[in-house]
Amino acid sequence: MRIMPRIQTTTLLRGARRRRIATAAIVVTTLALAGCAGGTTANGGATASSSASGGATVDFDAEALTAAFDDSAAAMLVPGAVMIVRTPEGEVEHAYGVTEWAGSTPVTLDDHIRIGSNTKTWTGTVILQLVEEGEIALDDPVSMYRPDVPNGENITIEQLLTMRSGLHNYTTTLELNTALDETPERVWDPEELVRMGLAEEPYFAPGEGYEYSNTNTVLLGLIAQDLEGKPIDRIFQERLFDPLGLSETSYPSATDTSIPEPYAHGYMFSNNVDTMEGEWLSDDELAAAAAGELVPTDHTNDNASWTSAAGAGISTASDLATWVEALGGGGLLSDDMQQRRIESVQPNEDGSSYGWGMAGMDSFYGHIGSLPGYNSFMGYDPATDVTVVVWTNLAPGADGLPTAAVLARLLIDTLYGS
Fold first, then answer.
1. 113 contacts 304 by C-beta, under 8 angstroms
2. Contacts with 17 (C-beta within 8 Å, 6 or more apart), sequence order
């Protein structure tokens, strides 16, 4: 699914289509709010505010945040969702709903989900670590490592990281989307994913535009494996998960379709081919879904190997919060490289902001991820020391919206008074 790591007051995602696991924008002017559910909060529901450099002010009210979250999740027919908000004035960790459609098992903070394109931030971080170690350079041509890439002598490693290579996004092809619908259990090799992308016409000459393409990140994962001489799951474990203590985070093998216990099931109403043209539920179908007469499809155990290093990760909300704080605040790169990474996040022609394997979303740094059934948002604002993490288990929503991104937008607006 193509999910956009950009958050603004009126724009969230342009194409929440499951065929793409990454960045885009959709106009969201209002959030329907209805009903209220309970939850657990830290800080006892107290209200507090704080100011940060640059004049930004954060108003923290745990009860207001959880009430708005539950209302909006219910309105979007989301079965289950989790939110984590951390501020200098207080924290709230809250679980909403159930793990299965029409089920009775409550969602918990410990539940695992598929995190989609948030995985890209792992791949980008590994590449930057290898840059610091002198194993690769940002201005190296891709042809040094992958001579099979057309025009690879003019595409740099940095352009793969910033989505400015021009290489076609393999997840937009009818071939892939048809296969995902007809054989969701299929095991995909990353090399065949790359070939699929390289077989299509490039979007533009290297460096002359921006287009989110999962082909870029799959290539970076393969390059990292070649340089390290070990599989990408071991690289992630040794370089990222172990140092940060991410004990609930994993990168499964291509043949493993399970999710560690406990986990939330993931649901979606449309299929991949339909969503390529933005075909969502009609008004009558939306009404039927709200009445429980139309149920979504369970995609929990679809094989996610088609996302490779661009989106196959699994994690929990707590681990995502720890990860995004290191991603935006430092801890796995030198101070200089961390600052350069932050500065690499620049506006693109489509209104999004993207850098070295990381998105800019207003004052937040992080990413958005989606796979059939799962949508997640993670962001850290270094100016205010605020962390926001949200996941949902209906993706895209019944109306095509990215459910976790909508909820994250609501939380951020509530915190910052937008």
1. no
2. 1, 2, 275, 276, 278, 396
Confidence of residue 193 (pLDDT cuts 50, 70, 90): very high
CA dist., res. 400 & res. 290, Å (int): 15
Structure-block tokens of residue 174: 């009818």
Tell me: the pLDDT tens digits for 104-151? 999 999 999 999 999 999 999 999 999 999 999 999 999 999 999 999
Helix (H, G, I), strand (E, B), or coil: what is residue 299?
Answer: coil
Three-state DSSP class for residue 123: helix
Judge if the upstream peptide bond of residue 396 is cis by omega within 30 degrees of 0: yes
| Cis, bond preceding 262 (omega within 30 deg of 0) | yes
The overall average pLDDT reported for the chain is 88
Lookup: tokens for 324: 């995004």
Domains of the chain in start order, with CATH, are: 43-416 (3.40.710.10)
Read off the pLDDT of residues 267-319 as tens digits, 9 standing for 90 and up. 999 899 988 877 788 899 999 999 999 999 999 999 999 999 999 999 999 99
Q: Is the distance from CB of 23 to CB of 352 less than 8 angstroms?
A: yes
Please give the DSSP secondary-structure letter assigned to residue 239: I
Burial class (CB in 10 A: 0-12, 13-18, 19+), 108: middle
CB-CB contact of 370 with 390 (8 Å) = no
Q: Cis peptide before 382, with omega less than 30 degrees from 0?
A: no
